[in-house]
Amino acid sequence: MHYYVIVPAHNEEGFLADTLNSILRQSLQPKRVVVVNDNSTDNTESIIDQFVSLSPIFEKLNTISSTEHMPGSKVVNAFNKGLQLLDEDYDFIVKLDADVILPDNYFEKVVYIFRGQPKVGIAGGFVYEQTEDGQWKLNHPMDKNHVRGAFKAYTKKCYKAIGGLRNAMGWDTVDELLAQYHGHEIYTDDVLKVKHLRPTGNAYNQKAKLLQGKAMYTMRYGILITVIASLKMAVKQRKPQAFTDNMYGYLEARKEKKEFLVTKSEGDFIRKLRWRNIKRKLI
């Protein structure tokens, strides 16, 4: 199977080389890797240049955007710009963050998943982050069948079916919901332990705290599912303020009549799916 990788990078001089080296070490190499230098003001571009000269699989794309590190729109916009450089000759495509280290057999295993289970449309591993004592610990506060946005692999069929990535907060949830709407499955492999070099959310702008609730509104969750999901998030993250922020963001989005990310029929499916998962966990 052939695959392409797109790596959005904004001021990643401290981590990018480790990420690109982990791509070079893959037992199954990608056909092309587009590294999008997204308005960086540090040495990110020079690091990209080193890898472009090192291997023909790497390509650089410089782009200008906001300097704010906001979740959702910024990274997806950079991804979409990188996507424009690629053709359709691939079996799956990968959105990869610039601050992760992949196991050497990561994409070989992803191929094994896609080939062995044709219904799977999105696959990936799990995030591990380093503790103060140097241990790499699992950090996956979401459901076990959720693939983190830092390393999403989509089959071409699935990616086309969901209409690409939404450039908004919640993109890495709505993609999986829409994948299931179109009959695709999500697969996570706990053998694939991805090292995340920067703790989740540390680089995000403070204005981002309300975006999760807004995303729940735009995904047509409805108020009750938003309450349940926000309570669960607050408990798992041990941050009571997360519940308040989510609800404020949701109600603000509803007041402003924000544009929905999904159609009415997709929203109906999403709510039914969410309720089914909630009931399953309660039984």
Automatic annotation (TrEMBL):
SUPFAM superfamilies per record: Nucleotide-diphospho-sugar transferases
Record keywords, A-Z: Glycosyltransferase, Transferase
Domain Glycosyltransferase 2-like: 5-146
Keyword Transferase annotated: yes
Domain of life where this protein originates: Bacteria
UniProt-listed InterPro entries: Glyco_trans_2-like (IPR001173), Nucleotide-diphossugar_trans (IPR029044)
GO molecular function: glycosyltransferase activity
Family to which this protein belongs: Belongs to the glycosyltransferase 2 family.
The protein, known as: Glycosyltransferase
Species, as recorded: Zobellia amurskyensis
